[in-house]
């Protein structure tokens, strides 16, 4: 569901940047008061790497000619809490946009909102957490993960349609676009819910305290070792990004499929100074555009998976360390 720049006007793109920036500001402010932040930093880095790698695996939606991929917002919020999860998924989206030209630079603010703010700050606290707050069991994890993932994808898809409407993209009539986007992302949401539930059920068996701690501010992680889980996610990131990504479906994702059904092409064209400048910046930064070498022969998938996972790990870690450094500096006694 990564939006391209052609789907947004400059004012709408700017407005979504401002909206996502406000949400990130709130997340940083909340993290500043997070007593467990330093202990979560390795998990932020490794879970971000895993989500980047997992997003490279597009799975086919049978009978549609479309595909989907894991969003990861609900999963990250369940592992980290809402504020750390938003920073982590933002790191994923920044790396995808700048280094792999996945999602437009003008559309980055919208993509952060649709794929990060919605699942991490809206759906996870309002749907997922209430279901598990009374009792954390495998059945409740499945129910919460399935419902939260479906709602996240439905809201994200609806926001994409609204953003194109407000941008005046006349090639995508509101009603027709909506009638395609919602059902296909319902199917994608069901798969994401199952994957999320499977991972969290494993965490319940190995580190149940982590899931419990994120549901209540009264429970700490001081006696819980997060290193084994972080190492597991790092190994999975390498295996998925470097190997399983080769098995990804080549079918267009839900957004591209919807656009193609309406216009006959998976991509739209849009002219203008802002769009041209954004495209030029993105082109100059993208080391492996579309997750491939410049030759475009499809040989760069594994390299893209490994490099992207490493860059996401570094960026998520740096973002967390920056918040932690500022927090310690403010709390240090005056010299």
What does this structure look like?
The protein is mainly alpha-helical and 335 residues long. It is 70% helix and 2% strand. It has helices at 10-31, 37-55, 73-80, 82-100, 108-133, 138-166, 174-206, 208-215, 227-242, 254-263, 273-285, 301-331; strands spanning 59-61, 66-68. Strands 1-2 form a two-stranded antiparallel sheet. α1 crosses α5 (108-133). The mean pLDDT is 91.
Helix and strand arrangement:
Elements lengths: L9 H22 L5 H19 L3 E3 L4 E3 L4 H8 L1 H19 L7 H26 L4 H29 L7 H33 L1 H8 L11 H16 L11 H10 L9 H13 L15 H31 L4
Antiparallel strand pairs: 1-2
Features:
335 residues; mainly alpha; two-stranded antiparallel sheet; 12 helices; 2% strand; globular
Briefly summarize what is shown:
With 335 residues, the protein is mainly alpha-helical. The protein has helices spanning 10-31, 37-55, 73-80, 82-100, 108-133, 138-166, 174-206, 208-215, 227-242, 254-263, 273-285, 301-331; strands at 59-61, 66-68.
């Amino acid at each position: 569901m990564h939006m391209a720049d052609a789907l947004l006007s400059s004012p709408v793109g700017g407005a979504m940047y401002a909206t996502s920036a406000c949400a990130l500001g709130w997340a940083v402010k909340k993290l500043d008061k997070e007593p467990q932040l330093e202990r979560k930093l390795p998990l932020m880095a490794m879970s971000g790497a895993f989500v980047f790698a997992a997003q490279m695996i597009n799975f086919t939606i049978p009978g549609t000619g479309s595909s989907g991929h894991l969003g990861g917002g609900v999963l990250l919020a369940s592992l980290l809490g809402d504020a750390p999860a938003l920073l982590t998924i933002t790191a994923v989206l920044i790396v995808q946009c700048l280094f792999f030209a996945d999602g437009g630079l003008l559309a980055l603010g919208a993509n952060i909102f649709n794929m990060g703010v919605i699942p991490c700050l809206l759906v996870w606290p309002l749907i997922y957490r209430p279901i598990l707050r009374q009792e954390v069991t495998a059945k409740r994890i499945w129910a919460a993960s399935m419902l939260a993932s479906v709602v996240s994808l439905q809201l994200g898809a609806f926001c994409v349609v609204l953003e194109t409407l407000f941008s005046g993209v006349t090639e995508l009539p509101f009603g027709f676009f909506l009638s395609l986007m919602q059902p296909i992302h319902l199917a994608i949401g069901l798969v994401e819910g199952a994957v999320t539930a499977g991972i969290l059920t494993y965490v319940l068996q190995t580190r149940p305290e982590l899931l419990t701690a994120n549901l209540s501010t009264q429970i700490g992680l001081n006696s819980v070792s997060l290193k084994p889980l972080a190492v597991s996610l790092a190994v999975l990131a390498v295996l998925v990004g470097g190997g399983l990504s080769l098995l990804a479906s080549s079918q267009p994702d839900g957004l591209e499929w919807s656009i193609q059904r309406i216009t006959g092409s998976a991509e739209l064209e849009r002219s203008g100074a802002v769009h041209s400048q954004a495209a030029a910046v993105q082109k100059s930064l993208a080391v492996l555009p579309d997750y491939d070498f410049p030759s475009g022969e499809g040989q760069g998938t594994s390299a893209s998976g490994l490099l992207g996972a490493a860059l996401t790990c570094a960026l998520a870690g740096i973002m967390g360390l920056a918040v932690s450094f500022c927090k310690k500096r403010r709390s240090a006694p005056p010299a």
